[in-house]
Amino acid sequence: MSVARLLWSPELLRYDFGAGHPMAPARLDLTMRLVAELGLLSSGALEVVDPAPAGDDVVGSVHDPAYVAAVKHAAATGEPDLARGLGTEDDPVFPAMHEAAARLVGASVAAADAVWSGQVPHALNIAGGMHHAQRAAASGFCIYNDAAAAVQRLLDAGARRVAYVDLDAHHGDGVEAIFWDDPRVLTFSVHQDGHTLFPGTGNPSDVGGRGARGSAVNVALPPRTDSARWLRAVDAVLPAVLRAFEPDAIVSQHGTDAHGNDPLTDLSVGIDAQRTAARWVHELGHELCEGRWVALGGGGYAVVDVVPLVWSSLVAEAAHVPLAAGMPLPESWRDGVEELSGLEAARTLGRGDVEWRRWADGYDPSDATDRAVLATRRHVFPELGLDPFHD
């Protein structure tokens, strides 16, 4: 049996807001080219399945029917619906909008089905992770919220508790809002402080609704947080809250836009740190929920030198054939990147392991990242029966 299933089709490239938009389909194209050049598609550990668009009932599991109808109408007519976020600069209307967004949902839900049914322990949809979409509105390049739909499918299939882990530089506000009052879902988001970045939410004091307090966990980091501090922040919160929550499955979003080269954010988290965090999520999946792990893509707008490297590493991690840090990248892939983009491609996969300090090594009140971590721990740890000051 394959270790991982990758939901992929070139049809997923039709989620395309047009020339000049940051959410360029080339992110996915270059990633899949690298996945192929690295031999992952022929490894035997990974199977590729073509996803179909989700039906209205599946999209409607996390979106209002009137909103789904509005998306279809906007796509058919080209008319904006600004009240629902359609036709904005972030979310321009395009003819294939409903079908393309529904296919993202279909892929993530199919990944959840594959994991929950035991067909494979891990499944991926690198085209997914559209975490900003709200129940009744588009937001931040996201029409439908495939991440929330994957979580909901796991609940509907019988999961008692599902953990959603969001590593994108932007707060995972849509998923958090959809499950705000649901104690069966824990949403963890590590992101740039919302006072300095879209969508402006995700404060450490936001810990879930009535009856679900402690189910929302927000680590809001200062701009320019580097790899070592980012890993320290993730390690100081994520393992503890997941172990306390005891999920039956994990859905994770691996937006790469925390990288220092990303044009839309102000964090400075390297490729190696993002690869390390993916490995941690993978390991927690095996420790806590018999390996049931659904991994999604997300944001990331350094299209040539970051996104393909992080997401091909994610695919390899899920397939249990992790790539060596610093390894040379295939020359054939580099040539293709340069021909397609006119930009020089990266020569190696990151630089190597990142040195970082564990939280148990001591709190530094003069460090802005440490203060952000402590704020999260003080707000949410007591809700989960944890000590905010000690591991």
Query: Beta-strand level of the residues, as a percent range?
Result: 5-15%
- List low-confidence stretches: none
Distance between the termini: 38 Å
Annotated CATH architecture: 3-Layer(aba) Sandwich
Structural class from helices and strands?
alpha/beta
- Helical content band: 25-40%
Categorize the overall geometry: globular
**Looking across the biggest beta sheet, what order are the strands in?**
2-1-3-8-7-4-5-6
Element-by-element helix/strand order: EHEHHHEHEHEEHEHEHHH
- Output the CATH homologous superfamily: Histone deacetylase domain
CATH top level label = Alpha Beta
How are the SSEs ordered, and which strands pair?
Blueprint: E1 4-7, H1 26-37, E2 46-49, H2 56-59, H3 65-77, H4 97-116, E3 122-125, H5 146-157, E4 162-166, H6 173-178, E5 185-192, E6 216-221, H7 227-245, E7 249-253, H8 271-289, E8 293-296, H9 307-318, H10 331-341, H11 368-380
Parallel strand pairs: 1-2, 1-3, 3-8, 4-5, 4-7, 5-6, 7-8
Helix pairs in contact: 1-9, 4-5, 7-8, 7-11, 8-9
GO biological process, one term: acetoin catabolic process
Pfam family, one: Hist_deacetyl
Keywords: Acetoin catabolism
Q: Can you give a write-up of this model?
A:
The chain is an alpha/beta fold. The chain has helices at residues 26-37, 56-59, 65-77, 97-116, 146-157, 173-178, 227-245, 271-289, 307-318, 331-341, 368-380; strands at residues 4-7, 46-49, 122-125, 162-166, 185-192, 216-221, 249-253, 293-296. It has a single domain (4-384), classed as 3-Layer(aba) Sandwich (Arginase, Chain A). Helix content is 36%, strand content 10%. An eight-stranded parallel sheet has the order 2-1-3-8-7-4-5-6, with helices on both faces. Helix 6 (173-178) links the parallel strand 4 and strand 5 (185-192). Helix 4 (97-116) runs parallel beside helix 5 (146-157).
